[in-house]
Amino acid sequence: MIPYTYTPLLTDLYQFTMAYGYWKLNMHEQEAVFHLIFRKNPFKSNRALCCGLASVVEFLKNWRFQQDDLDFLATLKNIRNEPLLPDEFLHYLSRLTFTCDVDAIPEGTVVFPHEPLLRIQGPLLQCQLLESPLLNIINFQTLIATKASRVCRAAQGEPVIEFGMRRAQGPDGALSASRASYIGGCVATSNTLAGKLYDIPVRGTHAHSWVTAFANEKEAFASYASIMPHNCVLLVDTYNTVEGVKNAIEIGKKLREQEADLLAIRLDSGDMADLSIKARTLLDEAGFEKTGILASNSLDEYVIHELKEQGAKISSWGVGTNLATAYDHPALDGVYKLSALRDPEGQWQYKLKLSEQSVKISNPGRHQVRRFFCNEKYVMDVIYDLELGISDTPEAVLLDPGQQLKKLDDIDAFVDLLEPVFRKGQYIHEATSIHTIRENAIEETSNFYRMHGESQYDVGLEKNLYTLKLELIEKVKP
Prior knowledge:
By secondary structure, this protein is α/β, with parallel strands linked by helices. About 40% of the residues lie in helices and about 20% in strands. It has a seven-stranded antiparallel β-sheet. Helix 3 (about 65-75) packs antiparallel against helix 4 and helix 7 (about 170-185) crosses helix 15 (about 435-450). This is Nicotinate phosphoribosyltransferase.
């Protein structure tokens, strides 16, 4: 993340008005539990890929009000031109430190709707202030990692490079997209700053402007090869693609005289299938069988799949706008809901939000997600309450397609997905390198598709939790 985003001011104003209300009513230290979930798989897919936890960790480690934050909050006025937040409250914020517990599903894990990606437990005021930034971080990176995973799957193991910085939503959008794309399976990014910040490999060729800056294409290629003999990828479609390939081959022969080689050519327009086939033929006939063909030009998983169906001879893929902006599904519908408050006697009081849309009725309790396996295959995920517990062979009510009771009696292993990350504000989780996260994400995604393909995966509420939810609905509804 860009350093300025570490401030607690990265939140919506209504979080501050509620926080002030909790403080004014002496509710601010009441222990609360919130969960961050998403309601629907993106991209008409059957899963998502969890991403963004490391950015959350950095945000929470640095979560502290600085004097200039408080000075800004002091300038906010209500309709009567009075301070919106009184000095006494701002003084409280000046001494506030992060003291919550955070449990999270590790990055790179395949996840599904309604499962808590994060569980936040701690003082109500702190949990409330964290809603907007946590949603901002997790929603976007999970969305982009999922998109990248789909694109890489369509490429069938061929390298995918993320090229999306120039059309991403601002600097942090570009950086977050680069990070999430790498976790989702991309081999590199064009974003140099992302390479520095996140230890992601960076790749780059040249633009059409390089070619048009010279008298002709051949001179442009020769000049580029002379300064980049061991990083020579030539963009061949500035004027005429087939002639561009021929010019690149001529320059490639001169590179070999210098004990270098033409690494690849790049196609960025036109009939990519036809042009790649023609380019491959020309390259092979000239003895450049190992020279790759990199394609760009508004690619996504659907275009890549179609090009492969057409027999395109493309060996690597540069994917930009459609990946970095999640063009066909621009937002993950993640939400952050209060699910329990501890009363003065120390008992948990379960909370939920009602809605006329059943998908928007939140789940009460303090949740964990248990993933069950049989013969090393995914069987089902069950959301359960930590107080109510779960049996070794539980019954669960499916959340989608809805309310079907399923008993898990053919299982031989399970794992609880949410892991401790912070306790009382102290970071206790062992950091994982981005490369390990990426490897795990690729393996997990591959295993999931090997077992399930595009079929629906079952997620359910543990039976006792479901019953408690129904009772609470009856209790609180008008």
